[in-house]
Amino acid sequence: MVETLYAALAYDIAAPPGSPSTRTVDACVLRQWAAMHYFLTVRNPWQWWPVLVKHDWDQKVMECDWGEDRDFRPFGPTKVSLYPDMGYAMIRAPLLENCSDWICDGSALPRLTDAKGYSMMAIQGRPNELPHSEVDFATFKWTAFGVQMISEHGYGTISTGVGEWDFRRFTEIDNNAAGHNTLVINEAFVDDKINFSQLHYRKGTTEVVTGVDLHCVKLDGSDVYGSGRDNGWFDSMQRYFCEVATGQYVMVDSFHVKQNRKVLELYGSLYGGPDYNEGSVHSELTVDEYFHTPSWLDGKDLSTMTDEEMAFSREKANNKCQHVDVELDADGVALISGCAFTPASLEGDATGKIISWSREPGSFVLDGLVTATSTWGSPTMHINRFRYTPTAPTGTGDLRAFVMTAGLKPDAPPPAWVKSCPAQPDAGTCLSVCVASRYFEFVVVEGAAGDLVSAVEMGQCDGENLAAEVVTTTTTRAPEGETSFTFEVDPSKLALGGLDGEALGELSQQVFEAAVTSLDLGVQLATLSLAQPSASSPIVLILEFAGGVADASYATGRAVGELVGRELRRYAAAVVE
Fold first, then answer.
1. How wide is the angle at C-alpha 542 spanned by C-alphas 539 and 547, nearest 5°?
2. Of 129, 156, 277, 325, which one has the greatest count of Cβ atoms within 10 A?
3. Contact 419/466 with Cβ under 8 angstroms?
4. Given pLDDT bands bounded at 50, 70 and 90, which one contains residue 198?
5. In this structure, how many other beta carbons lie within 10 angstroms of the beta carbon of residue 411?
């Protein structure tokens, strides 16, 4: 809205006559605003601040310079925004590594395609006691190449009051957890629309994860799922989002079922809302992750439409349509857009993929079209739904990870996989993620004090081959009293070939000096050496400590291993240059 620009120019507008403000609008912020408000018009030309015509806006936006990448990354590098009081967060990341024929046209002015080269993860952790709030903690929207790959119902019927004992909003599916992209407990359903997975008048926290190498956001919804009640569902619940491999994402869910819980009874009928009575205690819970994609049928009255009329075709949809089909395949879910972002009249050109991993077995299932009630009381809000559901209920909890990748036709989304790390830490669970040829590791500590303690890019991998070895460490706890232990890294995935003795010696010294100066190992590192028996064999890393290494097990090996991986990548880059 043009009012946003007025707000940015408030100092100019409010300046006394003859004393113009010296404040300026940031050129890059202005460029982003102009590109994202491509269809903006001034509704009433008689309500117009003359200050708008005082500036040369074309010249101003051309002052924004993100460096040599500006042509294909006009909004700059990855940005994480956090609004902790309201629980919102956003990760916006570039999708392109270089120019494309649809974005690098030599123009320095804003254009609609500026936004197409980015992905965005919009994250919701709003306290549900706030007015007009839905009960939708940890829901999200994922946009890539201008297309909402994962979406939701929208505003719907949330016009009822939000009081401490007023449960009326739970009546509609778009106001409770089952209408959103979050964790849904099957045992919390009253019927197919009313769900009490997330509890009324409870709030969680949203924060940027610090102390890790990647851009990550953490949501803690433990209280929302009942950790503070003896009859709540969970003792703990955390969800993490991290950007990986240029605009792709990893989502990790951790939850623990409350032990020895009591029967949950909720009374909302006093205000005309639904009640919930569990009946008897469920010691085991069936917990699904819900996902939704947009449908071109949104806003339409389906009661008069035949199946043939409801079938999607680009000719029947309008120029600003959003439609994403969902298909199950051998290793996850494929997302196929029906409508392009720009040019808007074209068929969809964005594709997505979601693959999963979980400690307990599970799989994706398709639910098809689901309908909610609009603000005006009509059943015209339509979206597609699919779920990740476990094979069996759990009495303890689960750890799950989802890798979300996007591509632009004719290219498919980058190949990816996720699995448990070959070596596990003393505390927490390590997950391996490969996207295209880039390898990442995540260490998650679960429970009430749950946290993402490590998120790091470790080296290279083969995204098309889940069984491929990766550039990582194989580490075991050293026997008490010994002064050294070894682990291996595989340089073949770096295309280095064999390293001669001189190169290994130089690399050993380089890594040793970096370890001594930059790592707090907790024990004194005496020597560090690398050996490679043959060009095809792994590099063996030998760590010698001044004393016993009973305390220098996984944590020590991992810290040095990460450092070795970084130095090997630097070496590989130098060889290429």
1. 170
2. 156
3. yes
4. very high
5. 9
The alpha carbon of 348 is separated from its chain's Cα centroid by a whole number of angstroms, namely 23
Helix, strand, coil shares, percent, the chain, to 5 = 20, 30, 50
Using the CB atoms, write b or e for 298-328: b if 16+ within 10 Å: beeeeeeeeeeeeebeeeebeeebbbbebee
Whether the predicted pLDDT of 480 surpasses 60: no
Are 344 and 319 in contact by the 8 Å Cβ rule? The answer is yes
Q: Which residues of 345-360 are buried (b: 16+ CB within 10 A; e: fewer)?
A: eeebbbbbbbbbbbbe
Neighbours of 517 (CB within 10 A): 7
How many other C-beta atoms lie within 10 A of the C-beta of residue 453? 16
Question: Is the backbone peptide bond immediately before 84 cis, with ω within 30 degrees of 0?
Answer: no
Answer whether the bond into residue 110 is a cis peptide, omega within 30°.
no
Contact indicator for 456, 212 with CB cutoff of 8 Å:
yes
Q: Cα separation of 402 and 334, whole Å?
A: 13
